[in-house]
Task: structure prediction
Amino acid sequence: MTANAPRVRWLVTGAAGMLGQDLLAVLAADPCAEVTALRRADLDITDAAAVRAAVDGHDIVVNCAAWTNVDAAETEEEAATAVNGTGVRHLAAACAGSGARLLHVSTDYVLPGDATEPCPEDAPTAPVNAYGRSKLVGEQAVAELLPEHGYVVRTAWLYGEHGPNFVATMLKLAAQRDTLDVVDDQHGQPTWSYALAERLVELGRAALGGWAPAGVYHGTASGRTTWCGLARETYALSGLDPERIRPTTSEAFVRPAVRPAFSVLAHDRWAAAGLAPLPEWRAMLAEALERPAFRELRTAAER
Result:
């Protein structure tokens, strides 16, 4: 840290997760960042008093803590909402009291998923499953309690080095099966968690600087594809035959929670924060696959 550079005190909740670990890596390269990293074992965001104590003294709070088991939420919606809704309200209230900026990571699942064109940030919300409803409660709390200092960043189809995800699963299965049937009727934007972490840090700086308006931002890759398209591109970039991936429909993989058929988001609001949209998904994937954890999976798949 240089002598004249202002310190920025960051709090990252959910720091042990895939996105949380990438955030810590990005912030570690910033000599002006003083980071408090709290895992689920360190902070229960459903405990209002604990949240107030944790937020105190920080400039920017990035909330990566979440209930992420989409299917389990169908039968445990109250528990999911306690984390994704009530817990977020506690964070927003604490930030409102302390003056901290809150960056809350949300999801495309708050939208109905029935659009045919990329959904803008102000598109009507209408979740199709319990997980989406629980996340919408959190979004509403941020908007209500932090109209000027609250930032909701919706992401989707996230993959990275530090947790279970679709890209890693496809590479693992390449070493086990000759062919794979993958859904080709759900459309979205595969997003590398490290690239999203970089963008969250940029947004946090812009928020603290006062030139990023509060509200909803869409933190997904540019472009669009299907799960089948993502699997095929993963194989092609890894030197594997993409024809090993066979298209199928959602009906072949019935799950407890309905998935949105169209999760393609627009990115118009980044311009207001002086930032470009995230890169195109293929370029993002190519860069991610060069990271050590993915290179290891690629090597195993080639054997």
